[in-house]
Amino acid sequence: MKQILAVDDSASMRQMVCFTLKTAGFDVTEACNGDEALKAAQQSEYDLVISDVNMPIMDGLTLIRNLLTLPNYKFTPLLMLTTESGTEKKQEGRSAGATGWIVKPFNPDQLLATVRKVLG
Amino acid sequence: MTEQIQNMQPQKQDNDEDSQQYLTFIMANEEYGVEILSVQEIRGWESTTVIPNAPSHVKGVINLRGTIVPIIDLRQRFGIEVLDYGTTTVVIVVKVAIASEHKVIGIVVDAVSDVFSVNNDDVRDVPNFGEDTDLSFIKGLTNAGEKMVILLDINRLLGSEVLPEAEQLSQLMHNLDADKQVVNG
Amino acid sequence: MEIDLSQFSQVFFEESLEGLDAMESELLNLDVNNPDEETINTIFRAAHSIKGGSATFGFSQVANYTHLLETLLDEIRDGRRQMTNEHQDMLLLSVDLLRNMFDALMRKIDFDDPLLAQLEKQFTIEIAKGTKGAAPEESDSSNDTLVEQEATGLLHWAIDFQAGIDILRCGNDPYLMFNELRQLGELSVNLAKHSSPEFNDIDPEACYLNWQLELVTDQPLERLKEVFEWVEDECIINYSSSPVMNGNANPDSGPSNIESTEVAIPQEQQGSETVQNDVGGKRLDEAKTSNQEPKPKAASKAKLPETGSIRVSIDKIDLLINMVGELVITQAMLGQIGQQDEINEESFESLKQGLEQLATHTRDLQESVMQIRMLPISFAFNRFPRLVRDIGQQLGKKVNLVLKGEDTELDKTVMEKIVDPMVHLVRNSLDHGLETPEERLAKGKSEVGTITLNAFHQGGSIIIEIIDDGAGLDTDKILSKAREKGIVGQDEELSTEAIHKLIFKPGFSTVDAVSDLSGRGVGMDVVRQNINELNGSIELKSTQDKGSRFTIRLPLTLAILDGQLVRVGRHIYVVPLVSIHESLQVEPNKINRLSDGHELIQLRNEYLPVIKVYQEFCHTADAKEIKDGLVMVVDSNNEKIGLLVDELLSQQQVVIKSLEDNYSQVPGVSGATILGDGTVALIIDVTGLVSLAGITNMKEHAA
C-alpha cells in the first residue's frame, strides 16, 4: 500500500484529504505543519507528500526544501496545496523542488486524479 | 354488552413483530403487564428522599448507581387503597420516552408475577367507557391462562398529562374488572 | 468517488471560528504604522485557511468574501500595499461579519446582513485602488475567449518534448505523463535526438532525454498542457496540430477542424512564452469554480451538532490514562485478595492498603476528569481587547487594557456564563469609571486610563477582578439618589461599604437617570443575579478618584458545590455555602409578625423576612416557630433573608446531580446530590424558595 504524508494546518482540510485518500486505499499519515511533517518523514518513508503551503512554524516550501536534502526523498513526488492567489507561490514551489500542485478548492475526485498522476 | 364484546375483537395492528414479551405484576389482585424491553431492573423497596410539594403518588427520589431516579406509587396513581410497603413490595425501574426525552422512573407495585409472550393477535382493545375518558395508557387486554392481564403503555402511563384523575381511574379499573367477568364468562 | 463533504463541516466551522479569534487578537495587537511581519502573516493565514476551506466545502458566500480579505492581506504581506487604520477597521468588522456568517451556516439559515454587501463593496473599491504601481489583475480576456472557443474535433497533435534536466529530481516522471496522455487518445512515443554529456560527466539523477510524441485526440490544447503543467517552465514543449485526414472523423466537422487549427496555431505559438496568459486562463477557471453555488447535497446534508465539543490537551488525557492504569493495578490487587479462601491478618492489611489506594486513585481520577472541562480563562479574556478598543474609541477615552492570570483555568460552562457579566462590568468601567483624557489630566492622572482583568485561584474558587483607575464611585450622589428613590431612609446613615452595595439593588440600578451619575449605571443587579446563579458572589471596593475593583468569586466548576447540610424534620437539604452569611438563634423579642402572616426578625439594625422551610416544603419539622429553631441568614438577589431550619449538620463538597433528567424542575430546589451514605439530598435554591414563599418585594416587607 502506498504511504502518503498529508500536511495541513487546517484540521478540516486534513480530514478531507485523509478521508479521501484512505477511502481510495492509501495509507495516510497526518501532520499539522512542516516541522511535524519533516519529523514524520525522517521516521518512515513516504511515497508521496501532499503539503499545504502557508502554515505556522514551518511552511510548505521550507518543508519541501528540507525534504529534498534527505536522501530518501530525492525522487519522491511532493505536491503543494495552493490557492489561485498564490501564483508566485507556484513558481516558488517549483523552484523549491515541488513536483506539482493541487489548486484549492479541489474536490475529492480532483485530489485523487492528481495523486494518481504522480503515483501512477 | 354484546356490542362491546364485538368491539373487543382484534381489529388492527400487526406492527413490527408478531409477539412481544411482557413482565406482569400484581396490584390489588389485578395483573398488569409492561413491555419487558422497557424494564431496566427490579428492586426491593427502599426509603426515598421526599420531593417537596410533589403529587402524593411521587414517593421521592432514590440514588440508582449515581443517577437520581423518581419513584412513583402506582396504587396511589390508580387511586387504589394504599398499602404499607413491606418486604415483598417491589420497584420496577423502567425507561420511558416522555416528550422525546428518555427518563428512568421506578414504579412501586405489590409484587412481580411473570414474564410471558403475547401474540399481537391476542391483544384486545380496551372497551369504550365513553368519550371523556382517555384510556390510551392501556394498550389492550389479553389472557394469560385463566387470568386477564391489562397491558400498559408505560410511556403514556408515566407521561402524566394523559392520565385521568386518580378517582376517575379507580372507577375505570372497577368497570374494567366488571367487563372482564363478561369476557371470561 | 462519492465523498460527502458535509462530514467535515463541523471541524471546519470550529477551526474557522478559532482562526477568527486569532485574527481578531492579532489585529488588535497590530501596530498599524509599523506592522510586524509575523502578525500580518498570522492574520493572512487565518483568512487564507477560511477561504480555502469554505471553497472546498462549498460555502461560497464565505469563500467569496474571504477571497477579498485574502487579496488585500496578501498585498499588505508582500509589501505591495501599506496597511492603514481603515484596513484594520474593515478587517475587524469582517471578523464579526464572518462569525455571523458561520453562525448562520451552523444553524442552516440564510445570511443576508446588508453589511456583507457594504463591506464587500468597500473591499472591492479598496483593492481596485491599486497597489504601489502594480498592474490591474484581470488580464486580457480575449485569450480566455479563445480557450472557450477551442474546438473539440479530433486532431492530430505532434508534441515536441524536451525534458528539463532536473525534472526527475522534482519527482516528475515523464513515463507517468505519457501515461496520462495515453488516456486522452492514441499516443505514440518516440525518443528524439538528444545530447547527453560525456559518459564520465553523466549525472545519474539528471534527465537528458527528448521525446517526440504523437497524439490523436479530441481534447483541447488546454487539456494537453495540463499534463505538463508542472514542468512547463523547465521543459521546452512545442505543440502543433493538424486535422485528422483519413478515416473516422465526421465529414461535417471537417471545415470546423480547419478553422480551429487556424485558431489553435497562434495559441500554440504563444505557448512557450506566455506563462502570464496561461495563468490568466487558470484564474478564470478557478473563479468559475468558486462562484458556483454550493452543491445542494452537501448543504442539505450538513448536520448541526447537538452538543458542543471541547478540545483537551494530550497532557490531560495522558494523565487520565495513567490514573486508570493505577486503578487497574489496584483492582487486580484487591481481586487477588478476594480470591483467597480466608482473610488472615496479612491479607487484611493489604486489603486495607488496597482500599486506601483505591480511595486516592478515585479522588485523583475525579479531579482529573473535572480537569478536562477546564479551560484557561484567556478564552474569555480574549474578547476584551477588541471591546475596550471599540468602546474606548466611541467614548473618546484612552485606555490601556492589562490582562493578568490568563492561564488560570475554569470550567467551560462557568466560563461561558461569566463572559456576559464581565462584559457588562468592563463596559461600565469604560463608560462610568474611566474619565476623559482631559478630566484625567486635570486630576493629575495620566491621560491613559487602565483597566485590568485579573484571574487567580483561591481555595476551591476562581477569583476574577475587574479593576479600573477611574473616578471611583461618588458615594454622595449614590446616597442622595437612593434617598430620593426611597431605597434608603432620609435619616439613615450608611457606611461607605453599604453605599457601594446599593448599586447592586434592583430598585436602584434599573432607574435610567442613574446612568448619568459618575458612578455605576444600569443593570448591576442583573450582573449580580447572573453571578449568584453560578453560585458565585461579587464584591466592590472603590475609592473616589482612585478607581474601583470588582471581585467576582466563582466555583471552579458547576458540577461541584460547597454545601451546608441542614435538617428540617427528617429531611436533609444542602444549602450552597456561598449564599450563607451567618446562622443564629433568634430571641422571641426580635421577632415581628406582619398582618399577612410573614414574619420578620431584627438582626442588628436590619429587618429580615424569614422563610420557614418546613412550611414551604410541606414537611413536619421540630421547630415550628422561629424561636425554637435556627435561622440561617442567606442571600437572595443581594437581599438578606432568613431560613428557618431545625439544625445545621456538616459542611461538605457535594457533586451536583440533575433532578430534571428523570423527573422535572422542583420549585425551591436546584438539584440533588448523593451523600456519603448513598442517600439523596436535595439542594435548596434560595431564590426559588423566596418566590415560592410569595415574598415578592422584600423591601416592602422590611419597611
TrEMBL record, chain A:
InterPro entries: Bact_response_regulator (IPR050595), CheY-like_superfamily (IPR011006), Sig_transdc_resp-reg_receiver (IPR001789)
SMART domains: REC (SM00448)
BP GO terms, sorted: phosphorelay signal transduction system
Domain Response regulatory intervals: 3-119
Membrane-spanning residues: none
Keywords: Phosphoprotein
Modified residues (4-aspartylphosphate): D52
Annotated protein name in UniProt: CheY-like receiver protein
UniProtKB/TrEMBL annotation, chain C:
Domain HPt: 1-105
Domain of life: Bacteria
Keywords: ATP-binding, Chemotaxis, Kinase, Nucleotide-binding, Phosphoprotein, Transferase, Two-component regulatory system
EC number: 2.7.13.3
GO cellular component: cytoplasm
Catalytic activity: ATP + protein L-histidine = ADP + protein N-phospho-L-histidine
Keyword 4Fe-4S: no
Boundaries of every CheW-like domain copy: 560-695
CDD domains per record: CheA_reg, HATPase_CheA-like, HPT
PTM sites of type Phosphohistidine: H48
Name of one Pfam family that matches: H-kinase_dim
Family matches, as InterPro entries: Bact_Chemotaxis_CheA, CheA-like_dim, CheA-like_homodim_sf, CheW-like_dom_sf, CheW-lke_dom, HATPase_C_sf, HATPase_dom, His_kinase_dom
Reported function: Involved in the transmission of sensory signals from the chemoreceptors to the flagellar motors. CheA is autophosphorylated; it can transfer its phosphate group to either CheB or CheY.
Protein name, entry field: Chemotaxis protein CheA
Organism field: Shewanella benthica KT99
